[in-house]
Write a structure and sequence with these properties.
147 residues, alpha/beta, Collagenase (Catalytic Domain), four-stranded mixed β-sheet, 4 strands
Amino acid sequence: MIEVNNQSRNRIDTKLLLKVAQKVLRGERRKKATLSIAILEPKKMRELNKIYRGKNEVANVLSFPFHQGAQKNQPLRSGKELGLGEICICPSRVKRDAKKYGILFQRALSWMLIHGILHLLNYSHRTKLNAQKMEQKETSYLKIIHS
């Protein structure tokens, strides 16, 4: 189940977000995963970024796993998929980033959602090799979704 909760004043294409999440989860063999997507205002994103990452700036995307098991990609004992977590996205920041990099807002929004989901699936960009793997996945999913 994928849930989208728009708490911002921005109009968001929820169908696009659902499509992106479904493609990534299916591609990562996690199509039964539970995922929450929260669309937030800059003030709330700054607050979350400061609390959880110690950074006093508006983040474009933040990922929060639901459970410890979600970080280890472990299913529940009953065989049901464990909830992955919540992705928080700030469309105001994504719009600014899209303009800065010369890409369409919808593509930038998709990219941030893909990035957040991959983090919940234990992808990281802490090392050069991990960053390359994550970027390859992001690029691949963006091509599938926006071609």
